[in-house]
Amino acid sequence: MENDIQICVPVFEKTPQRAVLAGKSYQKKGADLLELRIDALENPTPEMIEEILGELELPVIATNRVESEGGYFKGSEEERIELLLVASSQAHYLDIELKTTPELRQKVVKSAPKSIISFHDFKRTPSIVSLRKIVEEELSIGDIAKFAVMPHNMEDTLRVLKIIQEYPSTLGLAMGDYGKYTRVVGPLFGAPFTFASGNKATAPGQMDISTTRMIIEELI
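Below the sequence we write its predicted C-alpha cells.
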C-alpha cells in the first residue's frame, strides 16, 4: 500500500529557472507529483510555462489561482485561463476552480488530459450537506474533485474525512493546525494523493515532504 500513496508538492517560484530547480529538488526529496503554481510566476508567459514543463520529469498538476482562491494571478479571467491552457499538452492534470465561469471552466476541462475541479474556503468548513453538493458537482464536471476548507474544531475535520470516504476520486483537505492530520490520513480514506511542502508551505497546515512521508509510513 505504501507505494500507492502519492505526495504532491507545489512549485511556487517567481522565475522558470527557480521553478525547475525547485521541482528537481522536490523529486530528490521524494515527491511523486508536482503542482506548478502559474500564479506564482512573475509576469507569466506561455514560453515560461512550456520551458518549466519541458524540464520537469515528474507528473505535473498545472493551476493558476486567483486571489479569492488563495492565489496571486493579477490578470483578467480570460488571460488566466489561456495561460492554464498552455500547460495542457505537457501537464498530466489541469486544476480549475469550481467557481470559475462555466464557459471558461469547460474550456479547461475539454483541453485537460485529466481535470481537477477545486473548491477553497479559508474561513470555515461547510456543512456535510454542502460538501456533498460541492463534491458531486465537481465530479459531474471533471475527473477529480478537490476541496480545501478551514476547520474550527475536530468535528469539522471528521466531516472532511467522511466525504473523502464517501466519494471516490475526491481529495479533501482540512487546513490549519486542526486539519494537519487529514493531509496524511486522507489517502487511507481513499484520497488519490496528498499535498506536502517543499521549502515553503503554500497552504495553512501543510507539512514538509519527509515529515508527511514518515507519518504515512508509520500509519500503514
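The chain has one domain: 2-219.
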